[in-house]
């Protein structure tokens, strides 16, 4: 029984960062996609080429590109979620306003609906698109000297 030892993908230091770059452009972003494997021995996925970052400058460049890709992915998901939530809240508001104008609605129900509409409006202020902000630690701190 043989045991395969895999080493973790590198960060900074003496090792190389291995990553995969897509051959084709992403139809949404118009850019190549990056994948960073957990272990350097991971086989290259179909449609990707294996690449290396050997210097600090290359690593920073790939890290920024990967952060931009992730930020874009999260923004796209947030935009879809926001559109669904907005449509749902609009439908709820329309039903409440229709009930408010109905002749069969009692004064108590009207007061309750007005309060619900006010709370709905207050809640909508909290449903704003989130902005995912990434920051590279090495960009925001000076590197130690003489290490």
Describe the overall structure.
By secondary structure, the protein is α+β, with helices and mostly antiparallel strands. The protein has helices at residues 56-101, 107-126, 137-140; strands at 17-25, 32-35, 48-53. The protein has one domain (17-136). It is built from 3 helices and 3 strands, in the order E-E-E-H-H-H. A hairpin with a 6-residue loop joins strand 1 and strand 2 (32-35). Helix 1 (56-101) packs antiparallel against helix 2 (107-126).
Number of discrete helical segments: 3
Structural domains: how many: 1
What class, by secondary structure content?
A: alpha+beta
Using the alpha-carbon principal axes, give the shape. rod-shaped
The N- and C-terminal alpha carbons lie at a distance of 41 Å
Portion of residues in helices?
40-55%
Largest sheet: 3 strands, antiparallel
Number of strands: 3
Q: What strand line-up does the widest sheet have?
A: 2-1-3
Residue runs with pLDDT of under 50 for 5 or more positions = 131-140
Question: Mean pLDDT, as a whole number?
Answer: 79
State Rg.
Answer: 26 Å
Run of helices and strands:
EEEHHH
| Beta-strand residue fraction | 5-15%
């Amino acid at each position: 029984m043989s045991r395969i030892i895999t080493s973790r993908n590198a960060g900074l230091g003496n090792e190389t960062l291995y990553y995969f770059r897509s051959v084709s452009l992403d139809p949404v972003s118009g850019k190549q996609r990056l994948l960073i494997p957990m272990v350097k021995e991971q086989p290259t996925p179909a449609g990707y080429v294996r690449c290396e970052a050997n210097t600090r400058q290359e690593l920073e460049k790939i890290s920024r590109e990967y952060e931009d890709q992730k930020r874009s992915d999260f923004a796209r998901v947030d935009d879809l979620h926001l559109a669904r939530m907005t449509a749902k809240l609009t439908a709820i508001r329309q039903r409440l306003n229709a009930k408010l104008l109905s002749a069969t609605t009692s004064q108590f129900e009207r007061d309750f609906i007005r309060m619900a509409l006010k709370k709905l409006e207050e809640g909508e202020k909290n449903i704003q698109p989130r902005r995912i902000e990434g920051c590279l630690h090495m960009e925001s701190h000076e590197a130690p000297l003489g290490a």
